[in-house]
Specification:
The structure holds 2 protein chains of 2 kinds. Chain A is mainly alpha-helical. In chain A, about 30% of the residues lie in helices and about 0% in strands. Chain A has 2 domains: about 150 residues, Orthogonal Bundle (Cytochrome Bc1 Complex, Chain D, domain 2), CATH 1.10.760.10; about 150 residues, Cytochrome Bc1 Complex, Chain D, domain 2, CATH 1.10.760.10. Chain A has a two-stranded antiparallel sheet. In chain A, a hairpin with a 6-residue loop joins strand 1 and strand 2. The longest helix of chain A has 24 residues. In chain B, about 10% of the residues lie in helices and about 30% in strands. In chain B, strands 3, 4, 5, 7, 9, 10, 13, 14 and 16 form a 9-stranded mixed sheet that branches. In chain B, strands 1, 2, 6, 8, 15 and 17 form a 6-stranded mixed sheet that branches. A two-stranded antiparallel sheet of chain B has the order 11-12. The radius of gyration of chain B is 21 Å and the shape is globular. The chains are: A mainly alpha, B mainly beta. At the A-B interface, helix 3, helix 4, helix 6 and helix 9 of A face loops of B.
């Protein structure tokens, strides 16, 4: 009895003191702009969510940056994260599908790494990947396809190479100051993954001509088309990150957002070629066939070729597919008319558009190219700085 | 009947001898109910052949490429599985949980990882049979595990008639961060190669073989593959859309509960057998119809229908039938 009372008193105290400290440190935004990391955001952009077990710090970001550019994190020393994610292409790679360390060709196109921190789910069409930390284990350890090729046989040797590099001993200690031995201890892999995630989370791009309000006349016309009911682009490419799959500190309600854009219709029932069936690949539900996450359009100019499998060459082609209400593939094993797909999204309707208007829309998309981002030395390869 | 009870009791006493006869509850409990430590051995076979790394298992499934003319010959590449919720069941239907001994390698209080890769043939890197697990150059897999250690509290008035377990990782542990998880769920660690993050969670079963003569795909002349996989795991686990936190449910949990009659085997002699030949009895290991090579649990993978049936799991419109992969055998015979 007595201990119960004490416990509730203690709880009350904790609760009260929690309230007090909140009222002291937070003015009116309920923590929305509190972070131990300098996000460098314009005021108009809400801060992204940070995982409770991996809050952002500059030290983790810097450690992650070194790891991101380190090809020792692969089975044969040939592949780093930066092999498929080049800063000058907004961290995409310019090819339709990339090749892993041992020759496996990835079924999907390498994505840009731009404002990843705001995404609701990670990768092209996976509703079961909700954190960057989870996602990063896939390229590192995945065996289908093999990307970095880390596995049971080589992971010990690989981490030993990292542990032996004196550059890392300082970086790990500053990134995880509460751990006795963050580099040689039991949590070295966890620390590696959390730091890589922190670097990717910190890749922030909100400094394009669009953000600065410097649109050309053509881009302005394109913006109006983009936001108009004829083209309907803005429904899925919504908000400040141009993707409806966006969450931030202020998010209180969201649905999982995935859309079928009528890119394929192999069987008349809307089928996409295996294994790239998007959300359906994970859930197996027929209605999820061909559903992919709406990509942020920021820096989209730099990430050709387009769509989940890199099967569309230019932005003009992307717009044309939408204008048609779905892509027509006239011949070959993937032939079919995406326009008549029974599972395509309701916003994928055909529309009339002139060539000039296509140019204007593309000009608007190019106004989302952030040259500060792709030249930002904070995001560049730290291993070449002393050369 | 009375004889049977006595027999069962003495069987338990034998089990506890030489392992860890604990007396939890000790002096204060009655003589009739006490906690004993038990070892529960598992055996991996393919019919009458023992699953061994580097050895060719002959005559598997419905193919015809085998030297024997029946089935497919294949080498074992991976043979691991997670089990949890091990329970003894009395002839009255009373369930007696076996509490996993968390101090043992390869198991914690909630789940155990059985690893039947007996040796790593690391000198012959070209074949990559049963991958090396340490930088140590011995050919023994240090993580080999075919026995689960647990404690059970049994009232001697009961007769144990069944043993039961669930295949897989419990839901509560299946979607946590594997790089910080407790063994045997850590990756890199004991669970390396058993994680399945693109679906969220672990491979509950990783039974992968390399068929002699390779694998062809009837619909695609250019297709080549050398490994026929069975990856059982939960599918359709969608994250919380507001914060990306882990799934609260999966469309297909795919955790079969296996209930096995002990039959006439003495309780101290029981071993739980997993029979790969029975699992692939209706599968052609020399061929793949599409999606992923072998069965990787997701809807539409043509090879999964037969495999799920053998595990006693529903598949599409097929309802679950009795599993045919696991059985209780007399471990004292071997």
């Amino acid at each position: 009895m007595q201990s119960k009372m004490l416990a509730s008193l203690f709880l009350m105290f904790v609760f009260l003191s929690g309230c007090m400290s909140e009222s002291q440190t937070i003015i009116d935004d309920e923590g929305a702009r509190e972070s131990s990391f300098d996000w460098g955001l314009p005021d108009s952009i809400p801060l992204p969510q940070e995982p409770d077990d991996n809050p952002m710090t500059e030290e983790k970001f810097q450690l992650g940056r070194h790891l991101f550019y380190d090809a020792r994190l692969s089975t044969n020393g040939t592949v780093s994260c930066s092999s498929c994610h080049h800063q000058d292409k907004a961290f995409s790679d310019g090819v339709d599908r990339a090749t892993g360390a041992t020759g496996d060709v990835h079924p999907r196109n390498s994505q840009t790494l731009v404002n990843v921190a705001w995404y609701q789910t990670l990768t092209w069409g996976n509703p079961s990947l909700g954190t960057i930390e989870q996602q990063i284990t896939l390229p590192l350890f995945g065996d289908d396809p093999i990307e970095h090729g880390l596995n049971e046989s080589n992971s010990e040797q690989i981490i030993q190479a990292i542990q032996a590099d004196p550059v890392y001993s300082e970086l790990f200690i500053s990134a995880f100051p509460d751990q006795d031995d963050p580099l040689l201890g039991d949590l070295v892999w966890d620390n590696t993954i959390k730091s890589l995630a922190s670097f990717v989370r910190g890749l922030v791009s909100f400094d394009s001509p669009y953000d600065q309000g410097e649109l050309t006349d053509s881009a302005k016309r394109g913006e109006a088309l983009f936001n108009g009911e004829r083209l309907e682009c803005f429904h899925c490419h919504a908000g400040y990150n141009f993707s409806d799959a966006t969450i931030d500190r202020e998010t209180t309600f969201a649905e999982l957002d995935f859309h079928n854009t009528g890119l394929y219709n192999i069987d008349g029932l809307g089928a996409y070629p295996s294994p790239n069936t998007g959300r359906h690949e994970v859930t197996g539900k027929a209605e999820h066939m061909g559903q992919f996450r709406a990509q942020s359009l920021r820096n989209i100019e730099l990430s050709a070729p387009y769509n989940h499998d890199g099967s569309v060459a230019t932005l003009e082609d992307v717009v044309s597919n939408y204008a048609r209400g779905g892509r027509l593939i006239a011949s070959g094993e993937n032939s079919g008319d995406g326009r008549v797909s029974p599972v395509k999204d309701g916003f994928i309707v055909s529309f009339e558009i002139t060539d000039d208007e296509v140019s204007d829309v593309v000009e608007f998309l190019k106004s989302l190219t952030d040259t500060t981002f792709i030249n930002n030395p904070r995001f560049s390869d730290p291993w070449t700085e002393d050369d | 009947m009375k004889n049977r009870i006595k027999h069962t009791l003495s069987a338990l006493a034998v089990i506890s001898t030489g392992t860890l006869l604990t007396a939890c509850g000790g002096s204060s409990s009655t003589d009739s109910v006490s906690s004993v430590s038990v070892s529960i051995p598992f055996q991996a076979v393919a019919g009458d052949q023992t699953i061994k790394c580097g050895e060719t298992i002959t005559g598997l499934g419905t193919g015809s490429s085998s030297e024997t003319g029946v089935g497919t010959d294949a080498k074992i590449y991976n043979f691991r599985m997670f089990v949890h919720d091990i329970t003894l069941i009395t002839d009255q239907g009373i369930e007696i949980p076996a509490v996993l001994d968390e101090t043992q390698d390869g198991q914690n209080a909630d789940v155990a990882l059985l690893d039947f890769r007996d040796t790593a043939d690391i000198d012959d890197v070209s074949t990559e049979i049963c991958p090396q697990t340490t930088s140590d150059t011995t050919s023994v897999n240090p993580n080999y595990k075919d026995t689960i250690t647990a404690s059970v509290t049994i009232d001697p008035a009961y007769t144990i008639s069944h043993v039961q377990f669930t295949l897989g990782v419990p839901f509560d542990l299946n979607h946590d961060d594997p790089s910080a998880a407790d063994e045997p769920l850590r990756s890199p660690g004991l669970a390396t190669g058993m994680t399945w993050n693109w679906q969220g969670g672990y491979k509950f079963v990783g039974f992968d073989v390399r068929p002699v003569g390779g694998i062809t795909r009837p619909s695609d002349d250019t297709f080549t593959s050398n490994q026929w996989n069975i990856h059982l795991g939960s599918t359709g686990c969608e994250v919380d859309p507001t914060d990306g936190s882990e799934a609260t449910e999966c469309l297909a949990p795919n955790r079969p509960t296996i209930t096995l009659p002990i039959g006439s085997v003495a309780l101290d002699d029981i071993a739980i057998q997993v029979d790969y030949a029975a699992l692939v009895a209706d599968s052609n290991l020399s061929q793949d119809e599409g999606v992923k090579v072998g069965c990787m649990s997701f809807t539409g993978d043509p090879e999964c229908e037969e495999i799920f049936e053998k595990f006693g799991l529903p598949w599409g419109d097929n309802e679950a039938v009795e599993q045919t992969v696991f059985s209780v055998v007399d471990g004292s015979i071997n």
